[in-house]
Amino acid sequence: FARTPHAKVVAICDLNEDLARQRAGQFDIPDVYTDVEKMLSRSDIDVIDICSRGSSKDDDNHERLAFMALEAGKHCLCEKPVAHDYRNTWKAHHLAESKGLKTKVGLTFRYAPAMMYMRALIEEGFIGTPFIFNGYEQNSQFISPTIPVTKMDLIPEQPNDEIRVSSLEGYGAPIIDLSMWFMDSTIKSVVGILKNFVPYRTAIDGRVMRTNIDDGDIYIGEYANGAICSVQSSYVTVGNYPGLEARAYGSDGALICRLVEEFGVPQTLHQAKPDAVEFVPVEIPDKYFPPGYTPGEPWSSLFYANLVHNFMEE
Ligand SMILES: NC(=O)c1ccc[n+]([C@@H]2O[C@H](COP(=O)([O-])OP(=O)(O)OC[C@H]3O[C@@H](n4cnc5c(N)ncnc54)[C@H](O)[C@@H]3O)[C@@H](O)[C@H]2O)c1
C-alpha cells in the first residue's frame, strides 16, 4: 500500500499492539488500533485489507472481519480463505455488490509479474487451444513433526478419524485459481487423494498432538472446455518458497512459469512452440512490475505490491 500512488495508509489494527506499533513505525502509519470496530467506524477510511490469521477460538476470522468491513461500507481486500464455507464467500460478494463496493481475494500469485505476462500471452493466443495444465503449489514449510506449530488455523489439532482440510485449501487455492485463469475455463470434474503424511506434530505448548489433516494432495481434473489438468499441493515437499509451478500446453505452444526462489531468482517464464520445442526463457516486460520495483526484490514484497496496486487501480 505504501508503494501504490492510489493509497495512503492511515491506520493499522492488530490484537497485539506492540506488533501494530512496530509496523506503523516501519511504514509511517499515523494511527494504531487493537479494536477493529473502532477503526471501521472512521468515515475517512475507504479501503480495508484483511490480513489477520484465525485461531482455534476464532476459526473464521477473515469471514467475520470481511462482513464487518463490508457492513461498514469499506472496499475490501481479503486474504484467502474469505470463509471456510464457500457459500459465505458468495454472501460477502453479494453484500459488496449491493453496496457498490469493490472486493478482491488476496490470491497473490496471480500478481507475480511472470504469471501476469503468462496470462497476457495466453490471451494473445500463444498456446492456441488449451489442452493440458500441470500445477504445483508446494514447499517444505511444515515438514518437521518437532518444530512447534504456530499457524493453528492452517494446521489444527484434529484427533478424530475424519480428515480435516488443510493443504488443499491453504496451499492449493492459488494454483487452482491460476489453473482456471490460464485454461480460461472452470473445473467440471476432479478425482484426487488427500493424504496425511505427518500424523503427529508438536503444539506450541510442547504437547504431541494428532493432526489428521491433508498435508499432501494430488488431483486430476477436466475443465468445462475439455482441457485437463493435474494439480499437486503440499507443505511437506522439499523445496523453496513460494513453490508454484504452472505449465500450460495447447495446440500452438506451451508456457511454464516457476515461482520458486532459487539463488536469488524469484520467478522464471519459459516458452516453446511446435517448431521450436526446446523451452527458452522469456523476458518479462517492465509494465508487469509494480511501482517502486528494484531488481533483486524478494518475491514476497514484489508480488504483494502488485496485488495491492492492482486492487487500488480497480
Ligand atoms: N496470499 C498468500 O499467498 C498468503 C501467504 C501467507 C499467508 N496468507 C494469509 O495471510 C494471513 C496472515 O498471515 P501471517 O503469516 O501474516 O499471520 P500472522 O499470524 O503472522 O499475523 C496475523 C496477525 O493477525 C492478528 N489478528 C488476528 N485476529 C485479529 C483481529 N480480530 N483483529 C486484529 N488483528 C488480528 C494477530 O494478532 C497477528 O498479529 C493468513 O490468514 C494467511 O492465510 C496468505
Question: How many DSSP H or I helices?
Answer: 8
Question: How many domains, in number, for the residues?
Answer: 2
List ligands, each type once.
Answer: nicotinamide-adenine-dinucleotide
CATH class (first level) name of the largest domain: Alpha Beta
CATH topology of the largest domain: Dihydrodipicolinate Reductase, domain 2
Portion in strands: 25-35%
Query: Distance between termini?
Result: 14 Å
Which ranges are low-confidence, i.e. pLDDT below 50, for 5 or more consecutive residues?
A: none
Based on the structure given, which CATH architecture of the largest domain is correct?
Answer: 2-Layer Sandwich
Explained architecture:
The protein has 314 residues and is of the alpha/beta class. The chain has 8 helices and 15 strands. The chain has an 8-stranded mixed β-sheet with strand order 7-10-11-6-12-13-14-15, with helices on one face. A 3-stranded parallel β-sheet has the order 3-4-5, covered by helices on one side. Strands 1-2 form a two-stranded parallel ribbon. The two termini are 14 Å apart. The relative contact order is 0.15. The site of nicotinamide-adenine-dinucleotide has 14 residues, from loops. Nicotinamide-adenine-dinucleotide binds next to loops.
Q: Short description, anyone?
A:
The protein is of the alpha/beta class. 26% of the residues lie in helices and 27% in strands. It folds into two domains: 11-108, Rossmann fold; 109-289, Dihydrodipicolinate Reductase, domain 2, CATH 3.30.360.
Describe the secondary structure blueprint for this structure.
Blueprint: E1 11-13, H1 17-27, E2 31-33, H2 36-40, E3 47-50, H3 61-71, E4 75-78, H4 86-98, E5 103-105, H5 113-123, E6 130-138, H6 167-170, H7 172-183, E7 187-195, E8 200-202, E9 208-210, E10 216-223, E11 228-234, E12 242-250, E13 254-260, E14 268-273, E15 276-281, H8 299-313
Parallel strand pairs: 1-2, 3-4, 4-5, 6-11
Antiparallel strand pairs: 6-12, 7-10, 8-9, 10-11, 12-13, 13-14, 14-15
Helix pairs in contact: 3-4
Bound molecules: nicotinamide-adenine-dinucleotide.
